[in-house]
Each structure stands twice: as structure tokens, then as C-alpha cells.
Amino acid sequence: MGGARTRGTDTIKYSYMQVLGASVSQGSAVETTPEEEEEFDALAKDSDIRNKVYKSIAPAIRASEKDVIDDVKCAVACLLFGGSRKLLPDGTRMRGDINVLLLGDPGTAKSQFLKFAEKAAPVAVFTSGKGSSAAGLTAAIVRDGKDGFALEGGAMVLADGGIVCIDEFDKMDVNDRVAIHEAMEQQTISIAKAGITTMLNTRCAVLAAANPRFGTYDDLTNTADQMDFEATILSRFDMMFLVKDVRDPDRDYALALHLASLHKGEVQQEAEGPFNVSKLRKYLSYCRRRVTPRLTPAAGELLKNHYVSIRAEMKREKENGKNSGVPITVRQLEAIIRISESLAKMELCEDVNTGHVEEALRLFTVSTLDSANTDRGVGVDSLTEQEKEELHIAEEHIRRRVQRGGRINRYQLEAWLVSSAGVEERMARRAVHLMLMRQEFLERANFTLQRV
Asked: What is the distance between the alpha carbons of residues 407 and 424, in angstroms, rounded to a whole number?
């Protein structure tokens, strides 16, 4: 009877917590001394501080002149410093964290950028797409003992105030990717399961790396067709970079020389950069705590004009039948503002000036806009005379190899052209692609081609 009388008294109605002392933590565990803060204040006045920060991002990754890798380093630096969070009078919050997606060929150091960002950020969680579920990234309800349930935060909750690095982002299940929509934009996770109704904070930046749909980037196919992502998730990334494995003899030689030197331990100084990881970590943590930059009127006017022109250009392209795979919405305007704020934060500036906006517009153009505007294929008119001759020879080999009405696997045909006919791999793919466009071949199931 005693058990019956006291049943239900251990519910939340009768539970309470007595707190003797509490402190607010922003997630950063990096401490700086007064001497270091004086040094950082002096560093911020250096006119070249921005380039020094850029060069300190993953210095072991070498970039050739005017390479996209340099711009990726700029983007990762902006992601680490972050923009300014805003709390509007109506209680609405606007995120300040910057999300970046690296899409490209295998072996282009995408994962190395993620590993470096994990070491440099004051708070960071690293995970891989194949081994991550929606519950693992957001939150999970687990059974607590025999009768109750408990709420456990996932990677994005644990990284509150820092960054989440998601490798192999394309290998994630589609439903799991959809689950992080709210976490990436609203920076909260709403839970209503097993009698638990709550909201968790996920105020973190997302740095994701992914491969194109078919493993490697295909110059003959539209970029939109190779992005195996929904438009809803793409719009939540502030910057997207196409990182291609360019086959250039001079570039390849310089890269091989650099890697050999790294493995022999001959370039420790170059592999460090102007700031080592520890100093960079302290500097960015100090900047994040110290300033919350805001746009000046002149910078706001410049942003407004550029955004209107970008939208007008997208409208013209859509009317001409060119539909890009990357939507340009008001979120992209907010992305440019966040990038501008992060650039001001690097210099410990409270005001975002037109110089910061111009650099942010350049980064946005070379990343997201270039990804959206990559045209379908490379026309024959853009080839040199020698390349046109090579293409003609490759097509003649194909016609002799496959008789009218005959069938052959596309990849077997390309492999035969390279191994037996001596055709360059790029030209072999281009020849097959052009013959498909001219409908000399019809594509059947399982990548089978039929000669018409």
C-alpha cells in the first residue's frame, strides 16, 4: 500500500535542483595572458594581418599560383573566425557562423583542411558522413534504466560555440542530411519524442567535404548534375568550392617536390606558416571574444547593389534556359555579410568597411557563383587544332570498334580507347560524350551504348 501511495511522487512535478553557484560558458576553453592580448592587439594593426592568417591555414597544403586552394584557405579562415550573431528586438536570432562545402576530386586535400580546422578551432567535432546518422549529428532519445528516457546531444550539440567537420558528406543518407537543415540555419534542434519536448542549441559552423556524384569531377557534365545534394541543403552553405585535380606537368612537378620535401622533413618552417596552430588558435579565440563587427552605411550600400545585380543575372539565365544547381537567395546575401564580418574580426575592427565587403564578394564569386555558373561541357570550338585532330581520330577508332546496331559498355569503350588505341583519357571521354550528344549512340541500361 505504501508503494501505491507514493507512486508518481518522483515525477518532474516534485523534482527540483538547488544551485549554489553557476557560470556562463561560451564553449571556448582557450585562455590568453595579458601579455598575449597586448601582442594580439599589436598584430591586428598590421596591414598584412589578413594574408598572414590565410598563410597559416593548413600551410603543409601547397597551392600553385592562382589556385583554388588559396581561396579555400581564405574560406576556412573566415569560417574559423566567424561573423557576428544578432538578436533582433522581436527575439529572433540570426546566425553568425559560416558554413563551407568542399566538393571535388579525391586526393585534393579536402580532408586535410577538415583535420586542420579541427585542430585550430577552440571547440571542434570531427565526423564522417558514412558513420553519422541524424541522431548522431543532432540528438538521440535513449532509454534510461527501466522506466524513463534521457536526451543525449549529438555532434552538432557538442560543438556548440565551435565547428563541426563532416567528411564524406555525400555518403550520408538523404534523410540524415535533411535532419540537419534546422541545425545549420536556425542553429537549434527541436525535440518532441518519448514525452521529452525541448530545444537544443547548435551554434556551430559546418565544414563539409564531398565527392561529385560519380566519384570524380567530369568537365563534360553540368556541375548541377554532379552535385548529389538537395537545393535546400546547398542554400545553407555560405561558400561552395569546386576542387579539381588539374593535370598540369609544371604544377604536378612542384607538388611532387613539395610532398617529397615534407616527407623528408626539410620544410618545417614552411609547414608552420606565420602563426603556428597554438598561436592561431589563441588569436582567433581572442578575436571572437573581443569584437562583434557591424556594417557601415557605405558597406551596406555596396552590398545592396551587388546583390541586386547578382539576382538580375540569375533571372536572365533562367529565362534563357540555364538553370544553375545552386540557388541564389537572401541567404546568400546574409552569407556575404557574415564573410565581411569575419574579415573585419580578423583585424579586430568593430566596423565592416567597403574593403571587407569587396573581399567577401570576391570570395563568394570564386566559390558559390562560379559553382553555379559552370557551363555544360566544353564545345569543340574551344579546342585547339591538335585537340580537334585527336578528337577526330578517337571517334574513328570508336566507329571501327562498334558496328551499327552493336552494343558496348561505356566504360569498357573508354578503357579500350586509352589502352589499345592510345587515346588520352580526357579525349576518350570527350569523344564518347560528343557522339552521344549527336545521337550516334543511344544510352541503354547499365551504362550500355548502342550504335545507331
From this structure: 22
**CA trace torsion 275, 276, 282, 288 (10° rounding):** 50
In sequence order, which residues have a C-beta less than 8 Å from that of residue 163 and are 6 or more positions away?
79, 80, 97, 117, 118, 121, 123, 124, 125, 204, 205, 206, 207
Number of separate helices (H) and strands (E) present in the chain: 21, 16
Q: How far apart are CA 276 and CA 287, in angstroms?
A: 16
Model pLDDT for residues 158-217, shown as the tens digit of each residue: 888 899 999 988 888 887 787 788 888 888 888 887 777 888 888 899 999 998 877 777
Q: Is there a common fold for 44-372 and 380-451?
A: no
DSSP symbols for 398-432: HHHHS-TT-EEEHHHHHHHHHHTS---HHHHHHHH
| 3-class SS string, 270-324 | HHHCCCCHHHHHHHHHHHHHHCCCEECHHHHHHHHHHHHHHHHHHHHHHHCCCCC
Question: Any idea how long the chain is?
Answer: 452
- 380-451 CATH fold: Arc Repressor Mutant, subunit A (1.10.10)
Which ranges constitute the DSSP H helices of 94-212? 110-120, 134-137, 155-158, 174-178, 181-185
Q: Which three cell numbers stand for residue 172?
A: 550520408
For residue 188 the three cell numbers come to: 537549434
Q: Do residues 114 and 165 lie in contact, with contact meaning Cβ atoms separated by under 8 Å? A: yes
**Grid cell digits, residue 433:** 560524350
Domain ranges within the chain, ordered by starting residue: 44-372, 380-451
At 379 the pLDDT is 41
Which residues lie below 8 Å from residue 420, measured CB to CB, with a gap of 6+? none
Mention the CATH class of domain 44-372: alpha beta
